[in-house]
């Protein structure tokens, strides 16, 4: 080899080595990111339910078929009815279409045929079965029925499918709730008819067309919902993606070009909103429409008959052990909170112990590897690490469990910065695969506050397949002062919840906020939140505490019997029951005399209460006794508390652990 060739080779090696060192240094500072893929496979299991007297019927095959169109608007959101009944009643029973024929309907006082089921109108035997059920005293709810079911129970439907402009009429809903409901953003369709159903009572109309109406038949009542209830409720509670289920950066003013959960909010007006529209719609259907046909008896959603709940939450934001100061402060006030922790070296077992000993809980603050966020581990040789691997969700859950003393479980999550993905439900699927059962990533950040998702109660998100996901969502309502939250706004949240809505008020205060926006006003607002909760009888609990209480509530069993004694008629002979006769007697058809509701309910823990309406069919609540009520001398009179739900008054009856038999008397 010649000298000049050796020199060229030496220069090549020298410059190549320098280039390699520079490249290694560059990638050491700016490493190539390797994603640690999270598993997204999970088993969908229905939560454990005992039994309730409300039966919801779905058709999984019809739901799956609708999902094949891969269209948000064309999907079948029938499972939204389960959210409604669980939020407003508690216990319920869900069955598939195939089980309906073999299911005795007598124990169920309300049967809901979701649209997936009510579209099977070509089955004459089904129509006959349901006619008999209604005629003998049942309450049947049908969502947009078709075929023979429409012929049997509904208007003719000849007006076709329409897009509503406004809610034009509401029956028996006083101010201010009627104006609130009329201003609810609409993302649904309805079925019009050539005229109203003869003899029916119209409860709700859109564009002048009856979309919720009822008709007494025999001893029972059929209620028809003519609008796409599932689409409307899902659009409000779960949010609205593009029609192909992708998520748009709909509100870039909230957090620049980063996708957040609030980009799913269905209408810009909801970014600053004090009305839980989804809950208002549900409560109206249950307390007014269903309540006219059947007394509303359900399990109260909060412990010890409290009017709502306070969920005080803190995002640790890598502040580490020092963040525990808020838990210690809360402990002095007898309060608890939920800490969402990013599992880094800054938060140790000592910090976790301090939070837990103060009575609070630690849950995951998932730091997702997007938009320059995430937790990364170096990958390389010696001190040169040209690559970094993002810690997966599963790894972050495991890291947090390792920090928690005493094996404290990690069941809840809140995404760091509330960041979302481009896929409508991918986040929920990942959480389910990692064993998370409740999430709190929906809610406001900067420039927004309140009921962005129309609810202050936990609900089950629905997958793109139309099936429910096994992760509950508990939306956030207020993030400090970032969205314009002040003492007046918080006062309205709590007082409105006490007077009408009865919500779990989920609020966020950062432990490190005083380093980036020091403010005495913020500190005072945090303390005032505890005072407001106490003054308005809101249960101070944690995300995990609420989830466990709702799990018990869902697993309870509940049934009722309505009977009456007419002054002009003798009592029925022995062995015959005057059960549910009242339901067939409209108020104008005479005096029904004394009315009795017998409630049979079993709960697993103390602290639950059952609701009994203050009035039913013109009769007022007199008393409730523990026992059958056949011998008032030996039965115990039970004290109650009174509460209002969007203007409808209820008595809350405390329950003992285990079996309870209650008799409620109306005169």
Describe this protein's structure:
With 667 residues, the chain is an alpha/beta fold. Among the domains are: 3-30; 54-293, Rossmann fold (3-Layer(aba) Sandwich), CATH 3.40.50; 556-666, no CATH class. It contains 19 helices and 33 strands. The strands form 7 sheets. Strands 13, 14, 15, 18, 19, 21, 22, 23 and 24 form a 9-stranded parallel beta sheet that branches. Strands 3-2-4-5-11-10-9-7 form an 8-stranded mixed beta sheet. Strands 25, 26, 28, 29, 30 and 33 form a 6-stranded antiparallel beta sheet that branches. Helix 6 (124-135) runs parallel beside helix 7 and helix 16 packs parallel to helix 18 (520-535). The longest helix has 27 residues, at 3-29. The chain is globular, with a radius of gyration of 28 Å. Mean pLDDT is 90; it is low at 574-578, 584-590 and 629-633.
Helicity, in percent? 25-40%
CATH class of one domain: Alpha Beta
Main beta sheet: 9 strands, parallel
Q: Structural class of the secondary structure composition?
A: alpha/beta
Number of helices: 19
Taking all Cα atoms into account, the compactness measure Rg is 28 Å
How does the overall form come out from the CA principal axes?
globular
Work out the strand percent.
Answer: 15-25%
Secondary structure tally: strands: 33
User: Low-confidence stretches at least 5 residues in length (pLDDT < 50)?
Assistant: 574-578, 584-590, 629-633
Instruction: Calculate the terminal CA-CA distance, rounded to whole Å.
Output: 115 Å
CATH topology descriptor of one domain: Rossmann fold
What integer is the average pLDDT?
90
CATH architecture of one domain: 3-Layer(aba) Sandwich
């Amino acid at each position: 080899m010649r000298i000049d060739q050796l020199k060229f080779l030496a220069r090549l090696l020298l410059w190549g080595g320098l280039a390699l060192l520079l490249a290694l240094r560059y990638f050491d500072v700016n490493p190539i990111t390797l994603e640690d893929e999270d598993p997204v496979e999970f088993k969908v299991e229905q939560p454990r339910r005992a039994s309730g007297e409300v039966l919801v019927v779905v058709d999984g095959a019809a739901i799956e078929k609708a999902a094949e169109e891969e269209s948000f608007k064309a999907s079948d959101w029938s499972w939204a009815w389960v959210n409604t009944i669980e939020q407003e009643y508690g216990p319920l029973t869900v069955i598939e279409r195939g089980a309906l024929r073999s299911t005795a309907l007598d124990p169920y006082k309300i049967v809901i045929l979701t649209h997936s089921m009510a579209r099977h109108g070509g089955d004459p035997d089904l129509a006959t079965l349901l006619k008999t059920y209604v005629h003998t005293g049942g309450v049947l709810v049908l969502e947009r029925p078709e075929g023979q079911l429409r012929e049997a129970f509904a208007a003719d439907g000849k007006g076709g499918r329409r897009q509503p402009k406004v809610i034009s009429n509401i029956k028996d809903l006083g101010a201010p709730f009627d104006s609130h409901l009329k201003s609810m953003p609409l993302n649904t369709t309805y079925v019009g008819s050539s005229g109203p159903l003869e003899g029916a009572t119209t409860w709700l109309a859109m564009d002048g067309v009856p979309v919720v109406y009822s008709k007494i038949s025999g001893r029972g009542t059929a209620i028809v919902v003519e609008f796409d209830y599932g689409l409307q409720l899902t659009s409000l509670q779960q949010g609205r993606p593009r029609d192909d289920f992708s998520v748009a950066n709909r509100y870039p003013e909230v957090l620049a070009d980063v996708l957040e959960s609030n980009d799913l909010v269905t209408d810009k007006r909801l970014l600053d909103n004090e009305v839980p529209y989804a809950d208002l719609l549900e409560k109206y259907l249950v307390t007014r429409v269903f309540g006219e046909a059947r007394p509303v008896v359900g399990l109260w959603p909060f412990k010890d008959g409290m009017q709502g709940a306070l969920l005080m939450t803190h995002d640790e934001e890598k502040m580490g052990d020092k963040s525990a100061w808020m838990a210690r402060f809360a402990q002095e006030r007898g309060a608890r909170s939920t800490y969402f922790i990013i599992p880094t070296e800054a938060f140790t077992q000592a910090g976790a112990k301090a939070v837990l000993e103060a009575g609070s809980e630690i849950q995951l603050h998932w730091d997702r590897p997007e938009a320059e966020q995430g937790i990364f581990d170096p990958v390389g040789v010696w001190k040169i690490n040209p690559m970094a691997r993002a810690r997966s969700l599963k790894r972050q859950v495991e890291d947090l469990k390792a920090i928690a003393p005493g094996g404290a479980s990690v069941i809840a999550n809140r995404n760091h910065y509330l960041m979302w993905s481009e896929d409508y439900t991918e986040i929920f699927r990942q959480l389910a695969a990692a064993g998370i059962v409740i999430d709190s990533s929906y809610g406001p950040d900067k420039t927004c506050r309140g009921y962005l998702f129309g609810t202050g109660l936990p609900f089950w998100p629905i997958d793109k397949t139309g099936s429910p996901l096994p992760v509950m969502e508990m939306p956030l309502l207020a993030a400090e002062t970032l969205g314009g939250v002040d003492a007046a706004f918080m006062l309205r949240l709590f007082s409105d919840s006490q007077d009408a809505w009865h919500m779990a008020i989920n609020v966020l205060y950062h432990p490190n906020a005083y380093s980036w926006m020091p403010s005495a006003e913020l500190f005072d607002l945090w303390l005032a939140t505890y005072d407001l909760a106490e003054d308005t009888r809101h249960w101070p609990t944690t995300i995990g505490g609420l989830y466990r209480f709702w799990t018990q509530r869902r697993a309870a069993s509940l049934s009722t019997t309505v009977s009456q004694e007419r002054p002009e008629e003798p009592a029925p002979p022995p062995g015959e029951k005057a059960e549910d006769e009242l339901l067939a007697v409209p108020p104008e058809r005479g005096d029904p005399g004394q009315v009795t509701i017998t409630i049979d309910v079993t709960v697993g823990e103390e602290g639950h209460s059952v609701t009994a309406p203050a009035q039913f069919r013109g009769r007022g609540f007199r008393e409730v006794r523990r026992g059958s009520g056949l011998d008032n001398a030996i039965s115990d009179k039970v004290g109650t508390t009174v509460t209002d739900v969007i203007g409808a008054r209820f008595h809350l009856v405390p329950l003992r652990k285990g079996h309870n038999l209650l008799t409620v008397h109306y005169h």
